[in-house]
């Protein structure tokens, strides 16, 4: 007789895998593959080019119809420089909380899904359950794109998707999109006693950053607005900057990174065009008047679309019925893979999972045990529905 795992026991196992994005997730993926195989469930692995990371896709029940997909990412953010009171990769349960990296974001959801697998496997499902686990979500929703290429070629797609990011088990049907760029400026070095003889890459970066800040102020003042978001407008933000070597040397190089987190209805391209045009039309001519070799380079680092699932969509009504909660779905500022499932392959998606985003990415990240239990209950209700 096979051992029955609890969601908390599985969470302990999953947290024990160090799946920080710069590391491989294969140990975790192989554990899940072998776990599913115990119940006669086959898994398809979709690897990155190097073969060091993998997505996993599995189906329980009939394969000739759509069904419900439960999706989550396996990677977690680093713990470097954070002051933890316990080992971040060893689950510590105390005071009704489970502490560990990824406990809330989002191994708690994955653990609950895996704990429900034996019951789903034993049932005679009339509607299939699909499980999708991905890599490199935390660094730009990278891994899921390879999985979507495979899903797009399947004869039958899932009918709907639930992405288990931490929402305190509140149904979410919309979130902002994001685009992030690195900007590299090339100037001309010289002695600081004659600034006009050089091209100060730091100062030109500062001018461009100031322009981005003005665009951010315009969005905050003029919108468009959606009051259902905590920050009800599109935001622009500069998060990193480097440049210069010494105070008495004109900086020959600088770089910075900025992002746009946009309402799903607010196309970020006009904002990007304004930034590109200011750099190339206003700053670059002045730089090249001193040194024709001066330059400004924009490199896209990551992007993902927003999510905008209609409040009366079938997936929303279905999940509301599982929850027994008819409230209108919420909207969140942080991004997920849900928008990609929806826009890339046409799988209507919502976001719903245990835990709070307020605990994510922080030292002593934790998941409340009652949230894990609530997710267990949701999946038990889902089993009843798919097995009817």
Automatic annotation (TrEMBL):
It is an enzyme of class 3 (hydrolase). Keywords: Amino-acid biosynthesis, Arginine biosynthesis, Cobalt, Cytoplasm, Hydrolase, Metal-binding, Zinc. Gene3D superfamilies: 3.30.70.360, Zn peptidases. The keyword Zinc applies. PROSITE patterns: ARGE_DAPE_CPG2_1 (PS00758), ARGE_DAPE_CPG2_2 (PS00759). Residues 174-280 form the Peptidase M20 dimerisation domain. InterPro entries: AcOrn-deacetyl, ArgE/DapE_CS, Bact_exopeptidase_dim_dom, Peptidase_M20, Peptidase_M20_dimer, Peptidase_M20A. Pfam families: M20_dimer (PF07687), Peptidase_M20 (PF01546). It comes from the Bacteria. Its EC number is 3.5.1.16. One of its GO terms (molecular function) is acetylornithine deacetylase activity. Its cofactor is Zn(2+). Belongs to the peptidase M20A family. ArgE subfamily. This is Acetylornithine deacetylase. It comes from Vogesella oryzagri.
